[in-house]
């Protein structure tokens, strides 16, 4: 029979609130055992036989996901893996770029990712240099693999608000990407240029000339992103302004959530 927080507190724990488990009350400890899978044996005042039997019941309900706190990143990663499960790795270079390599008798795709390379294998995604990738980053990459786009960039640039179905995400783009970058690099265009170059950005200011700084990033071979930066002008009362623009084919390769994630990731990398 599943043990709820109240069941565990009332029927199993000593209810002394001694704090020996590291929590101020037995109820707080019960909550951690049920929702966060903390071992029941962390309480030093339980009979070992009682602990062992109760832990079996807890393990069973944890396996079923009952009352546990959901790991949203893990759920999203499992969903993304399933979405991309039917992809044929051998076909990916023609669709999205990269090259096929063989490692440990497995065919993998090595794909440029900003200034690094990632390896897409049947059992997961890793950085070739061994650096850790977040689960949300892997979700984003799986979504790119699964999108199915084959279009090559055409050089026609569009603002985020010009991409279909982005209306509900424009506030997020402003709040999570544009404003933090503007605040970080206002009056510091040289630092922005240095940060952009460090993640593989190509300085195209001289060629484009429509802003104080223009850098083009290539997160994936067929997904270029361009950054436009106008620095503050205190004399004339102009605040710094920054904008990310995308090749018009971006929707072939990324869904709207992924375009926003990519933008947030660029902002994060630049500010690191």
SSE layout and pairing:
Elements: H1 5-12, H2 26-36, H3 48-63, H4 72-83, H5 92-96, E1 99-103, E2 106-113, E3 116-121, E4 124-127, H6 135-147, E5 157-159, H7 170-185, H8 189-198, E6 202-203, H9 205-208, E7 213-220, E8 223-230, E9 241-247, H10 250-253, H11 256-271
Helix pairs in contact: 1-2, 4-6, 7-11
What does this structure look like?
This protein is α+β, with helices and mostly antiparallel strands. The chain folds into three domains: 5-63, 3-methyladenine DNA Glycosylase II, Chain A, domain 3 (Orthogonal Bundle), CATH 1.10.15; 73-147, no CATH class; 157-271, TATA-Binding Protein, CATH 3.30.310. It is built from eleven helices and nine strands. The strands form two sheets. A five-stranded antiparallel β-sheet has the order 5-9-8-7-6. A four-stranded antiparallel β-sheet has the order 1-2-3-4, with helices on one face. Strand 1 (99-103) and strand 2 form a beta hairpin. It is globular and about 75 Å long.
Report the CATH C-level class of the largest domain: Alpha Beta
CATH topology of the largest domain, by name, is: TATA-Binding Protein
Oligomeric state, counting identical vs distinct chains? single chain
Structural class of the secondary structure composition? alpha+beta
Order of helices and strands: HHHHHEEEEHEHHEHEEEHH
Count every beta strand, where a strand is a DSSP E run of 2 or more residues: 9
Name the beta content range.
15-25%
């Amino acid at each position: 029979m599943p043990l709820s927080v109240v069941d565990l507190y009332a029927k199993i724990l000593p209810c002394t609130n001694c704090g020996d488990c590291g929590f101020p009350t037995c109820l707080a400890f019960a909550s951690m055992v049920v929702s966060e899978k903390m071992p029941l044996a962390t309480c030093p005042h339980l009979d070992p036989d009682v602990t062992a039997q109760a832990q079996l019941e807890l393990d069973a309900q944890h396996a079923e996901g009952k009352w546990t706190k959901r790991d949203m990143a893990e759920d999203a990663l499992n969903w993304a893996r399933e979405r991309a499960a039917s992809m044929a790795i051998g076909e990916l270079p023609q669709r999205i770029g990269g090259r096929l390599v063989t490692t440990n008798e497995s065919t993998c795709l090595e794909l440029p990712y900003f200034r690094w390379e990632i390896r897409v294998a049947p059992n997961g995604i890793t950085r070739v240099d061994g650096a850790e990738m977040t689960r949300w980053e892997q979700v984003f990459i799986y979504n790119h693999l699964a999108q199915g786009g084959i279009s090559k960039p055409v050089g026609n640039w569009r603002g985020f608000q010009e991409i279909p179905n982005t209306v509900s995400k424009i506030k997020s783009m402003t709040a999570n990407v544009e404003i933090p970058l503007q605040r970080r690099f206002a009056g510091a265009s040289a630092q922005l240029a240095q940060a952009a170059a460090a993640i593989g950005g190509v300085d195209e200011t001289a060629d484009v000339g429509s802003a104080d700084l223009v850098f083009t990033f290539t997160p994936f071979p067929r997904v270029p992103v361009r950054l436009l930066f106008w620095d503050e002008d205190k004399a004339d009362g102009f605040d710094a302004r920054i904008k990310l623009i995308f090749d018009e084919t971006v929707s072939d390769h990324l869904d709207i959530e992924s375009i926003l994630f990519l933008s947030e990731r660029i902002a994060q990398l630049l500010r690191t």
